[in-house]
């Protein structure tokens, strides 16, 4: 340490140590100097102190000009400087930093874990009842947002008060979007000035600690209160947000949350994320893009840590972005169509334009360097690189394997009305599309022979009744009895004939809709017994019958997603699920798939259109392989 006199550089100090018999490199000496500086054992030069002060002033001016700061995955919105308020409130929360509070917290943590384990089925059922996607109400959304806001605010105040407890200052608190998820933050950078690592770790752990403490208290209320109460609902939400989610998110070192800062404190490496990202970028430009760039001189341990964390953080951020973007694009595609999904994808690309420009610039620089260096060599390697790049793109870009075919809308419930007797249609009471109740009149048949028979038998009854009247007037009792018997027989015959005439009125046997086109044209038409008159269908039970044939048709299964659009309204594509699949005639590999239509569907019975069944998710490479495979005859593969 005596060699750090301000007159020697790190290289000169290394040379002196080698001359004294210690084999150390300049990089090792430089790393040792950084540690001594972080511990406050090396005095900065006047230039360094002046530069540091100027940078701090510039940063403060920049913060005062802009409320919104950060990057795409960590956008911050400052609420201002809370340091004075924290100083006033700190004496009231000093008891939270006593050994007794730590012991009480550990007991509550164990109690919370025991409650979750013992009542896991009950908790899962109440959580699904109150906060599942299908059970969400405006009140449950308010409870979730309110609980989240309260717990995250308590979390950040835990960091802030812990920093105050160990002698630091907190000049910024606010709201942020972390990987597009809402959160709060407290700027406790003063913790890096603490000499003891224990103090820095406590500042990092204080937020999750106090949040889990409050959650544990609420879990006791949940287990003791009547289910369905307001406090019980808040406790259920808190046990999810402040317990399970708190542990999973804050323990992830790849997110810039407590786990990340704890890792930095443990490794004693400040700004780990920024340094690792810059170091990994330099390493990639040197070893992958083959740029003539010099790696910074670091200790082997520091190099391994920065490279591993940089690659891990890049992979995590890239994977999350692809997952998030594909989910949003897929949701919008299903809800609003491909045009809206394309606009969302364009918005994502615009949001990523800065890093994409940086990657493109690095790629162009690497390409220029490579072409300059290998201008006189064969172009074979370039072709190989292009082929490999195309292959990688084909293996990454998602794609769907589909089966297309026309469809027709039909009813799953159908009733055919037939002629109960031979005759002539005298009148039709319905029109196409009329909705009928069961038993409603549909049409009337007439049978001339039956009409004449009805008139004859009714005339016989009337004639016998007149004779009976005359016989009764002449007081011929014997004749009256015979006439009464004949009248009864004639009346029975006339009633039978009237019943047969009544059967010629055709009624609806089920509740449904008239599906026959122009039924009024049946008027005056002669029909035979059993002839088809009308067809009734239930419009509430409609289905799209899709005819598929060719490659991919035999791979269609029940439960797969289908997109279809009717010819009557091509601007409104719809989505459904295959309900049944069955083989049909019409060629090898021909199948018939059915999709149940919802009540909100605008497709009428008999409507036609085109459908596409998405029967497998793959990538472009898989689609190409499948296309080549389907083009071959099956017997060639035997």
Short description:
By secondary structure, the protein is α+β, with helices and mostly antiparallel strands. It has 18 helices and 18 strands. It is 54% helix and 17% strand.
Plain-language structure description:
The chain has 638 residues and is α+β, with helices and mostly antiparallel strands. It folds into four domains: 70-267, no CATH class; 271-377, no CATH class; 405-411 and 541-637, Elongation Factor Tu (Ef-tu), domain 3 (Beta Barrel), CATH 2.40.30.170; 414-536, no CATH class. The chain contains 18 helices and 18 strands. The strands form four sheets. It has a six-stranded antiparallel beta barrel with strand order 5-14-17-16-15-18. The chain has a four-stranded antiparallel beta sheet with strand order 1-2-3-4. A hairpin with a 2-residue loop joins strand 1 and strand 2 (74-80). Helix 4 (83-93) packs across helix 7 (138-165) and helix 12 (300-336) packs antiparallel against helix 13. The two termini are 79 Å apart. The model is unreliable at 64-68 (pLDDT under 50).
Relevant terms:
about 650 residues, alpha+beta, Elongation Factor Tu (Ef-tu), domain 3, 6-stranded antiparallel beta barrel, 4-stranded antiparallel β-sheet, 18 strands
Mean pLDDT: 77
Helix content: 40-55%
**Low-confidence runs (pLDDT<50, min 5 residues)?**
64-68
Q: Please give the count of helices.
A: 18
| CA gyration radius, whole angstroms | 42 Å
Q: Give the N-to-C terminal Cα separation.
A: 79 Å
Number of strands: 18
Protein structure class: alpha+beta
The outline comes out as elongated
In spatial order, strands of the major sheet run 5-14-17-16-15-18
